Amino acid sequence: MPTAITRPTGEELLRCELTHVAREPIDVARAMEQHAAYLDVLRKLGVDVIELERLPGHPDAVFVEDTALVLDEGAVILRPGAASRRGETASVAAELAKHRELFHLSEPATMDGGDLVAIGDVVLVGQTSRTNHAGLKALAHALLPLGMRVKAAGVRGCLHLKSACTAIDAETLVVHRPWVDLRRVEGARLIDVPAEEPAGANVLSVGDTVLVAAHTPRTAELLDGLGYRVRTVDVSEFAKAEGALTCKSLLFR
Question: Which of 68, 58, 50, 67 lies closest to 7 in space, CA to CA?
């Protein structure tokens, strides 16, 4: 059974970090409803949902994906690029220790989980303001004994690699190419999202279902036409906080 580690949010979301989008009003009540609906979709797809405690002092804590990389062979506890987020990792590590052997990144490395895309035996690492070269080197060292390779991917115009590129399966990436340099990616099938829906590049595969943001209907139509089982999920309030579908859970088996 797949497992998802998640975390609730509240009024603290209004104080979220923003890098590439302008601050606009967030309807917190609606965001909480959207998050509950997101968890409900995961449960209906057979996912065991673990809800960590809310962290009111950490506005971005709902975006739990940024704290760790979880692979079949182990989990890496990351060191988020925004100093305001580093207090989120301890509780994630405590939960993940029940499921995986843990590895830890340390200073001067910085790395957000949103900058990591695993495809086959490769982990793509987005080079962004949140993830530095020291982080890339430290991750490569941690993953080498696990048989995983690390490759850098240039990112521009968006917060994270997963803003521009997500894996739909072990061979396929959904991408918005203006935001990402994938020249080092070999052999992957690339599905380009409609140019007017760059946010469609962030999808979440759960078993044989692909979750797509409800505000990217053309992306949903594209993937449906390619034979994928698609389900749309409303994350519009979290998009105002520079978040997306993958951000709100750490999904693993």
Answer: 50
